[in-house]
């Protein structure tokens, strides 16, 4: 499973999107946009989740092309 998380394009595992949505909500609550001092940290955390979700969307999840 850990390899699947690191390399979503090579995996048959579909990550539970709710887990990542919960993380996004937590980050949004912990680092509000009004907190300009921690804006960069907020951006980095959200960007890493968005990037992972985007990689998962590009995966064929083990389906062979016909």
From TrEMBL:
Q: Which domain of life is it from?
A: Eukaryota
The protein depicted here goes by the name Uncharacterized protein
Q: Name one GO molecular function term.
A: guanyl-nucleotide exchange factor activity
What biological process terms from GO does the record include?
small GTPase-mediated signal transduction
InterPro entries (UniProt xref): RASGEF_cat_dom_sf
């Amino acid at each position: 499973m850990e390899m699947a998380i690191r390399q979503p394009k090579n995996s048959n595992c579909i990550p539970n999107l709710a887990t990542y949505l919960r993380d996004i909500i937590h980050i949004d609550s912990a680092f509000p946009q009004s907190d300009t001092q921690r804006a960069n940290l907020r951006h980095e955390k959200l960007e890493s989740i968005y990037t992972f979700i985007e990689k998962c969307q590009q995966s064929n999840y083990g389906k062979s092309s016909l």
